[in-house]
Amino acid sequence: QVQLVESGGGLVQPGGSLRLSCAASGSIVRANNMAWHRQAPGKQRELVATITRGGIINYADSVKGRFTISRDNAKNTVYLQMNSLKPEDTAVYYCKMYLEIFNSGRYSLNDYWGQGTQVTVSS
Q: Are 83 and 63 in contact, with CB atoms under 8 Å apart?
């Protein structure tokens, strides 16, 4: 079984910072692309940032210059440093990883999601 566990969400004032973490565990052979998504109330889930295993990064326009995605391949962990937070950043944040796993004698590649962590930006 593969499990992604997120941490670091919470309540912060506008202009503040938070750092999200997402650690994967289980029969992981290799972690490929990692990403953060978010979903605000009444809205569709949207892509926030992606990072390849080699470190190529992309951001949504709405977070460029404020958020930084990074990863630790040895720990199968992805991070999201969020600075200059705005009320419109309020959402549940989900990590996603494209993982190669070994289970029951077979290798397979699948997308895995974290359980989500709430980020609320409010004064």
A: no
Name the token pair of 11.
């309540």
How far is Cα 52 from Cα 119, in angstroms, rounded to an integer? 24
Distances (CA, A) of 94 to 4, 68, 109: 10, 15, 19
Residue with tokens 């973490």: 21
Residues of the chain with pLDDT under 70: none
CB-side neighbour CA atoms (13 Å) of 52: 5
Calculated CA dihedral for residues 57, 62, 67, 71, nearest 10 degrees: -30
Say how far apart CA 104 and CA 95 lie, in whole Å.
26
pLDDT at position 1 is 85
Token look-up 């990863």 returns 71
In contact, 54 and 108? CB cutoff 8 Å: no
Torsion angles phi and psi, residue 14, rounded to 5: -55, 135
State the Cα–Cα distance between residues 55 and 78, nearest whole angstrom.
11
